[in-house]
Give the backbone structure.
Amino acid sequence: MTIYKKYMDIAESVSYLSPDPKKKVGAILITKKKNGFIKIISVGYNRFVESENQYIKKLNWDDREYTKLHIIHAEVDCLSYINKNDELIGERYMLCTLSPCIECFKYIIEYNINTVFFKEKKDKTFFIIEKLAIEYNISLIQI
């Protein structure tokens, strides 16, 4: 478990790249090969969608309900840098500073992530995530 805490530290560092002044979330995707070698595949953080639209660039982080419509979550940002059809050898692990929401968890399922480590639990929807994790045989581990 200690090794994963070190990778969680990396996810925590990545979270500081987020422009969100209220909630900084980071995620990293790693693979672990049979010989024990661990490799970082991708990183992500919560951010605004990328757009040339000047209006989006001026959005106010304080208007949380409206801002949520324009946010890409850290997990999706992380997975957007890889091709889900790539042959990633070994088990896939995602480490997130916040437990994934339902929408992000659908991507975790789609990308065949074996285990999700998280630091802070999002209590509102976590019971649904736990049900999905059992259904799709994905381990959830809080560290």
